[in-house]
Amino acid sequence: MAAPAIKIVVLGSGTSVGVPTIGCHCGVCTSADPRDARLRPSILVVYEGRNILIDTTPDFRTQALRTGLDHLDAVLFTHAHADHVMGLDDVRPFNFRQKGRIPIYASAETMASIERIFSYIFDQKQRETNIPQLDARLLDGAAVDLFGLEFTPVPVLHGSLTIFGFRFGQAAYLTDHSDIPESSMELLRGLDVLFLDALRYKPHPTHSTVERSIRTVEKLAPRRAFFTHISHDLGHQRAESLLPPHIRLAYDGLELLVEGVPGP
């Protein structure tokens, strides 16, 4: 059976504080270019009528409303930092509509943090208020089949922390990484679309720079690459004009189509 064609929707392309940054009056934070307005980083993967979300950012409600998201089939988590998990409570309307639990997938370490942060969801206590109805499932590094499409966890280093990116078909989404182990590089060959962290030009202890991510693209040679998790150091128009033509900056609302072919 042919693998499904995939649409990727960029729900947010910004760094942990978003752009504009609170209290900042720099040229990017005051820019009239809508591509410089960046919510916290997340994507939606759409295929065969299914919606798979990667990370529930603090902006998830806004992202879902402006995308017109009306159902949610599963959530994958890269890691448990606040800018990637704090919108989890906002899945409740999907529980109401779908009348069932939503599966969420994460590493054991990430799931433990989610269960601590959102203890009221998981503590089994009777409550008078509605809480998200979730089915927690652990990722052990093996690929997981979600409704006919395999999602393969790709370990990357976020400073000293090992977190997951994900490959699905000919696309891969890597956010919040300072280094990609060679074993993970091998999982990223033969891609149509590759998303990479490119926080800023200056070095950062837990994130990739524009220069470093360009070198990663050169090594992996995807057909198209998009940089995400972008800070206010990068104005979209100027920063993109300095990139090779096959590398672009992601922006909120960007939609991409990827051919439906099996992953590695």
Which SSEs are present, and which pair or pack?
Elements: E1 6-12, E2 42-47, E3 50-54, H1 60-67, E4 74-76, H2 82-85, H3 92-98, E5 102-107, H4 108-117, H5 119-122, E6 134-139, E7 144-146, E8 149-158, E9 161-168, E10 171-173, H6 182-185, E11 193-197, H7 210-220, E12 224-228, H8 236-241, E13 247-249, E14 255-258
Class of secondary structure makeup: alpha/beta
Instruction: Give the tally of structural domains.
Output: 1
Q: What would CATH call the homologous superfamily?
A: Ribonuclease Z/Hydroxyacylglutathione hydrolase-like
Describe the oligomeric state of these chains in a short phrase: single chain
* Average pLDDT figure: 95
Number of helical elements: 8
Q: Which sequence of strands runs across the widest sheet?
A: 6-5-4-3-2-1-14
Taking the sheet with the most strands, its summary is: 7 strands, mixed
Shape: globular
Rg from C-alpha positions?
18 Å
DSSP, total strands: 14
In the CATH classification, which architecture applies? 4-Layer Sandwich
What does this protein structure show overall?
- The protein has a single domain, classed as Metallo-beta-lactamase, Chain A.
- The protein has 264 residues and is of the alpha/beta class.
- Strand 7 and strand 8 (149-158) form a beta hairpin.
- The protein has eight helices and 14 strands.
- The two termini are 16 Å apart.
- The longest helix is centred in the C-terminal third of the chain and has 11 residues, at 210-220.
